[in-house]
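Good morning,

Both structures are done.
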Amino acid sequence: MVTGALVVYAVLVLAALAVAAAIALPLRKASPRVFAAIVVVVPVLAFALYRIVGTPAALDGSAAPATAASGEAPSMEEAIAELQAALARDPAQPEGWRLLARAQASLGNREAARDAYMSALEHIPDDPELLLEAAQARAQAAPGNRFDDEALAMLRQALAIEPDNQRAAWFVGVVQRQRGEDAAAVATWEALLPKVDASTATALRTQIDQAREAAGMPPLPADANASPVEAATAEAPVADARVAPGSLRVRVTLADGLAERARLSPDAVVFVIARAAGGPPMPVAVERHAVRDLPLDIVLDDSDSPMPTAKLSSLEEVEVLARISATGSANRSVGDLESAPVRVRLPAITPVALDIAP
């Protein structure tokens, strides 16, 4: 059993090394220190996040979970510190800053993630995907997840460079709704509507109708071309305007009295994880919170993706769960409390409810 787990880990690390080398290759000659740091931090990040979910055997309870004391897992925090040190010595490396931002976001360090994205933008200010990620990071680090003027300018710049960027258009509409510019949000989202797939269009039409109602406008005319499934779900409730196509709203609750019975510290760490349904246990999106924050109402999206090659929006079905770590580390251990995993097809019409119970 141990040998099998080691083989799984070895394969994971080798794959992560290949990804890391591909990402960092342009930096090898220009900045060998940053190249070396990225090659270290990507496998460590992959390895540590793999341990968040556990080995395949641990998922079905057939093996004892690994513990932080086993010494098997390297420290993600140390790897991040190494990347920070390398970037301090040679800061003109946007891909290093982008990787650092994603790593910080995976640890729940939203302000640090925002700052790392802003550093990346200093070097490549015209990358639409980077502009979008940075704008989201600014909102996630702000009270109420509100987009400020600089974040809005980033979204508009991304759209100017890539007019068909659906997520950027969606978030421009979100900003307009946040600011009470409901008619402008209607115009933005109605222009987006013909460009999205049928499932996303169902959710988007409901959001448009909500914006129309707030603006004193009638609802959209019924779509004569809608399929029976779309028509049946057209009135279903959807997540609020924070949730972009390819994103997932999650509500995490704790069973009554469990915090007292389990003597949970308010500082105990809560991981909220989305992973490919029926696939490897590597998270495609993960957020870290504290027990004191429960109940949680959060949105998982591509900015929560710990790895550059695995994004939530690229999947059709995911499995979502929440875990309270007994040790406070990412390593799965005895005494952890978990919700039952929930399978969800994307885009999701309703929020995913996760209840952590004994």
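Second structure follows.
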Amino acid sequence: MTHHKAAAALAATLLAVAVPAAAADYTLNVNTALAVEDPLYKGLESFRDGVAEATDGAVEIRLFPNSQLGPDEDVLEQARAGAPVAVVVDGGRLAVFQNEFGVLGAPYLASGYDGMRRVVTSDRFEEWVEKLREASGHQVLSFNWWQGERHLLTQKPIEGPADLSGLRMRTPGAPVWVETISAMGATPTPMPWGEVYSALQQNVIDAAEAQLPAVVGARLDEVITDITKTGHINLITGLVTSAAWFDSLPEDFQRALREEALEAGDVASYGTRDALAAIEADLEAKGVNVVEIDTTPFREATASVYDELGYGALRDELQAIAAGE
């Protein structure tokens, strides 16, 4: 009897302080194009566990690797409609809703993680987060999910922009990516990441560009011969969900989600940074030629992209933030 009384008292207490008594009152399904082997996925696992702990199990995060819930764009649309979904997505795909986000994917904005982290945790960036909410109904949880610098993945050696002439190169469909690949000399060919392996295998495309962990995750070493380290786009991504769903959460859970997302983004990003050398060695062991080149010709070729997309003034401001000025 005492046990029942204690349980009843506990239940009353929980109700009194308005803490949801049921386990997992809220569930968030997180979609990513990446494979479970990707260092970034470890960050998502850390996010899942951190949120469970911070909310005493009231918010459950479910992870869906390899785009199990569909292409990123589809999941973004579901989030817009208020579905309890989130997606790991780059700024280029958000630029259709809020233009400034596109600059995050612009060529040679910053090198490494630390500079990009300063940009996406700045007050300036938080202004964009608010604008995005109003423009499209998306809520950014954090944007410090660094996946590494993107390089050229080809079936022949590349020494400069001229070698890309006529090559059909897969890229995400956002304007900033398309303009960058075009400026580098290739013919941009947008398609979902999940289709790249077969497209290369069947010569539908001649090349792709991606960060090293994604190359391994998609087993592209089987269908390319060369990786040229251009580092043309420093891939920073964010965890983006539905603003309507987010607003339905108690305030302390909203806070917990954003704090845990920022912390997990660091786990993902530093994990990626620490894994890059081993991943590169692994690719070389599999027979891929990984080549360092002078990136100056590519930097010069892509410099115009900022102005073409109206990001000229932003570039200077963000490069100053990235440099810690």
